[in-house]
């Protein structure tokens, strides 16, 4: 079935909300206060193996009218990312796709990821719905999860959760009641949510034209062959954009902020909370 933009984005939301009950609750909490929720962006993760790299995962978005815009590098995390904007629908969320640069990782991690990909039915990589397919390799070995986690939290998360929206992001500019990110953060914390405090609860500054905050990822019970264990799944993000000199809102991302936002799925932050 050929999906249109709204079908694709709705499916990504449903699949994300399934393992991220916090997102559904925060969404409802704001709607119940009379807010209408618009999404600033949706993020997706992958490995740079040519079978599943950004070039593959971007396709369903290009097919429904998205265009590639900014590029970002995260040296210490060995990640590269691109963002996409819809050509005509200015209310459509941006798409942010990142990939782990395998050649920069240890030989052991490379071999593990290679093995995981080699052991899949190779047809899944040509499925136009790959981006909605989760861990197509049945990522259910806790031993593999742990070995990846030692080197890259991102790789370990990918192994368990695979291809899906890693987070949705509320467009804070479109909220009526909350004029600053701090007000929204305070409201969320008073309502019982824990925010990612890595690098401060608010990432970015008005001068950088983008401020962001995020919840800590929900914990989700994963059935490993060794037994069930709770692993951080997905998180909800909040973005406030500032106007550029020409009066239009900044459309891109800020690498130094994104670097900290990635950590919202990190078990270490969960333990610190
Ligand atoms: C993406 C983190 C970066 C942003 O808005 O800067 C990001 C991820 O966790 O996969 O979404
Ligand atoms: Ni984000």
TrEMBL record:
<dbReference type="GO" id="GO:0051213">
    <property type="term" value="F:dioxygenase activity"/>
</dbReference>
<dbReference type="InterPro" id="IPR009770">
    <property type="entry name" value="HGLS"/>
</dbReference>
<protein>
    <recommendedName>
        <fullName>2-oxoadipate dioxygenase/decarboxylase</fullName>
        <ecNumber>1.13.11.93</ecNumber>
    </recommendedName>
</protein>
<keyword id="KW-0560">Oxidoreductase</keyword>
<dbReference type="Pfam" id="PF07063">
    <property type="entry name" value="HGLS"/>
</dbReference>
<comment type="similarity">
    <text>Belongs to the 2-oxoadipate dioxygenase/decarboxylase family.</text>
</comment>
<keyword id="KW-0408">Iron</keyword>
<keyword id="KW-0223">Dioxygenase</keyword>
